[in-house]
TrEMBL record:
Lineage: superkingdom: Bacteria
Listed name of the protein: KipI family sensor histidine kinase inhibitor
Domain Carboxyltransferase as annotated: residue spans: 7-210
Pfam family, one: CT_C_D
Molecular function, one GO term: hydrolase activity
């Protein structure tokens, strides 16, 4: 278990504790983090406000009217004392399919990624859509899921100058990670398409479509199918 350290609890205000399980990013961390999420949900029950997992940590936010920081720490200590990796994560993780229209108007970096890899745009699309990814972390914005790992031929650093406004649903690549923007926001990922999926919905239980450990496939669709599914086909404005 590369990067595994003794768990550490770090105060995060009056209503949160940061559980640090690892120091280094590693795909082998995921079974431990999914187990921690599951056990915290059970241990905190209605006193739990939010769980924000990253590649190495879990932020646990609790209701300060229901628990004192000391009581919350005590519950976390009990969870950590009996924590075991979630060995069934692969079998139990749901598969989410994100219909995606890969097009230069939606993904202006498609040609650059193709040139960088010495491949055609069609090959880039086939490579990205042909893999199954795992959600390794949540953050940046509500509903934003960091997924990996993309094939080496797709690896590309973030843009030197981030865009001020990235349309909701935009699918991008940064390093060996891929993601889709749940809402309009700034961002510096290399955009290659757009999904019609609603990644964040206040009327949905849990709000976010994707959860830690989920398996995800980007399914290539035509413009007609993209629009039929509710996707926004408006191209990005110049200079964004």
């Amino acid at each position: 278990m590369a990067g595994r350290t003794l768990p550490r609890l770090e105060a995060a205000g009056l209503d949160g504790w940061l559980v640090r399980l690892f120091e280094a990013i590693d795909e082998a961390n995921l079974p431990w983090l999914t187990a921690l999420v599951r056990d915290c949900e059970t241990a905190f029950g209605e006193a739990l406000v939010d769980l924000v997992p990253s590649y190495t940590t879990l932020l646990v936010v609790f209701d300060p009217l229901a628990l004192t920081p000391a009581e919350a720490r005590q519950r976390l200590s009990a969870v950590l004392a009996s924590l075991t990796p979630h060995d069934d994560a692969d079998r139990e993780a749901p598969l989410r399919e994100l219909p995606t229209w890969y097009d230069e108007r939606m993904g202006p970096e498609l040609p650059r990624l193709a040139e960088r890899a010495g491949m055609s745009v069609a090959d880039i699309v086939a490579c990205h859509a042909g893999a199954t990814y795992r959600v390794y972390a949540l953050g940046f914005a509500p509903g934003f899921a960091f997924m990996g790992s993309v094939a080496e031929c797709l690896e590309c650093p973030r843009l030197e100058t981030p865009r001020k406004k990235v349309p909701a649903g935009s699918v991008g690549i940064a390093g060996r990670q891929t993601a889709a923007y749940p809402a309009v926001s700034p961002g510096g990922w290399n955009l290659i398409g757009r999904t019609s999926a609603r990644l964040f919905d206040r009327d949905r239980e849990g709000f976010g479509l994707l959860a830690l450990g989920d398996r995800v496939r980007f399914v290539a669709v035509t413009r007609d199918e993209f629009e039929r599914l509710g996707g926004d086909p408006r191209p990005m404005e110049a200079g964004r």
